Amino acid sequence: MDKIRIRGTRPLHGAITIGGAKNAALPLMVASLLTEKALILDDVPRLADIATLSNLLAQHGVEIGVEGKGSGSRVMTLTARDITNMVAPYDLVRKMRASFLVLGPLVARFGHARVSLPGGCAIGTRPVDLHINGLTEMGAEIEIDSGYVVARAPNGLHGASVVFPTVSVGATENLMMAAALADGETRLINAAREPEIVDLGTCLIAMGAEIDGLGSDTIRVQGRSTLHGTRHSVVPDRIEAGTYAMAAAITGGTVELVNAHLEHLTAVAKVLSGAGVSVSPTERGVLVSRANGALRGVDVMTEPFPGFPTDLQAQMMALMATATGAAMITETIFENRYMHVPELMRMGANITIHRSSALVRGVPKLTGAPVMATDLRASVSLVLAGLAAEGLTEINRVYHLDRGYERLEEKLAACGADIERVKGD
Ligand code: EPZ
Fold first, then answer.
1. How high is the pLDDT of residue 72?
2. pTM of the predicted model, to two decimals?
3. Which H or E run contains 273?
4. How many CB atoms lie within 10 A of CB 223?
5. Are the C-beta atoms of residues 142 and 135 closer than 8 Å to each other?
6. Torsion on CA atoms 316, 318, 323, 325, rounded to nearest 10
7. Cα–ligand 1 centroid distance for 169 (angstroms)
8. What is the predicted pLDDT for the residue at 425?
9. Hey, what's the torsion of the CAs at 142, 146, 147, 149, to 10 degrees?
10. CA 251/CA 366 separation, integer angstroms
11. How deeply is 200 buried, as exposed, middle or buried, from its count of CB atoms within 10 A (0-12, 13-18, 19+)?
12. Residue 261: pLDDT band by 50, 70, 90 thresholds?
């Protein structure tokens, strides 16, 4: 397995181009199932999760073509003309939970599907009851058989008013796609408001769907009998941008995040400015700078968008490890998203966990160490810590990183980091 080696304390200076968002590209790819026409997606990132989902869609019968060599922008064309297989198998779904998003589109367009339950993952049990209950309210007959969701809607789905007891990005996406082909109006109440939801809904509208309320907590969809193809650019990845913003901050550098949308990072920008980091818009994106000023400890609570994103919690914890003072970080979305804590503590961080909160007491410096990645965002928080630490940090199991960060070591090295990927056995 590959490793990443970092020799820290070098401030980052330069520009990093932000790619298309993983968590927008995945549901956008699934949306191809809703039409027999071609869906063309620009700025699809080169990530392991994208490859996994491509394999899943291909085994359903989706034809997928990709153009764009090297590190340039990548164009993906998906055509779900001959869908022959309605089964999403466990060995693919368990690898990448977003695969479960195929359930709604398959049932809505073909009237039946057999999709493996995704099971839990490192950060939590990750149930899918909201997806299943919503489809049931839209007329699907659903049973669980040997770890699979078996869904049938021989007469198609009908509109419904679905109230989510908790905000769910995936359930909002699954049901919005299903509603696009249902008979009548669907209202999704307490819907997720993430930019990735808006991006998916905007693409569905370009495909002929009638949707309003995107970005609000109530989304209304008027179903259509068919949808057509379109060409759509994947929204830039706000989590990648937030991650590199914290890389600039933790090293005391200045980095321009090209293509980043500041309006997708307002809660993050507010927290960072409270910590003594300046975040400002530029012609090309967002400039992040922490030159000379000391980092100050600030409290953070993760919340659904527009709150502080849970996908940046681990990175923020690394940043607070060397801040002056203390920071209380509270994770409200997932029940087990502190796997980065013991690894950060091996690098000298002073962190105490009380149930869903972690108290981070700033220390003067971190020390490099061999550390173990456990999940995507925990892994990248160790990279950030390594960039600031004195000495050598070696991060194992970097396949976690490859799921969500394209050419991470290249982008950081181009800004002056002493970072390299070491090919493993
Ligand atoms: C999406 O996961 C993202 N993944 C996650 O990013 C992100 O952390 C999460 O949204 C929250 O923003 C993709 O978009 C592919 P949820 P998702 O449904 O949709 C509970 C990353 O690092 N819940 O919004 O699975 C759930 O347990 C990944 O890129 C139910 O109870 O998240 C959690 O506590 C990690 N029942 C909360 O809702 C359900 O049916 C939010 O989950 C569904 C969810």
1. 75
2. 0.97
3. helix 266-274
4. 21
5. yes
6. 80
7. 6
8. 67
9. -20
10. 12
11. buried
12. very high
Among the atoms of ligand 1, which is closest to the Cα of residue 23?
14
221-242 mean pLDDT: 98
Ligand 1, atom nearest to 194 Cα? 12
Q: Which two tokens stand for residue 160?
A: 């419904």
**Size (the chain), residues:** 425
Pairing of strands 148-152, 141-145: antiparallel
Which are the catalytic amino acids?
A: 121
Query: Contact 248/42 with Cβ under 8 angstroms?
Result: no
**pLDDT above 80 for 291:** no
- Please state, for a pLDDT cut of 90, what percent of the chain lies above it: 92
Query: Cα angle at 37 between 36 and 41, to 5 degrees?
Result: 120
Atom 7 of ligand 1: nearest residue by CA position? 311
Residue 258 has pLDDT above 70, yes or no: yes
Question: CA–CA separation, 74 vs 62, rounded Å?
Answer: 18
- Residue 18, H or E segment: none
Distance (Å) from CA 413 to ligand 1 centroid: 31
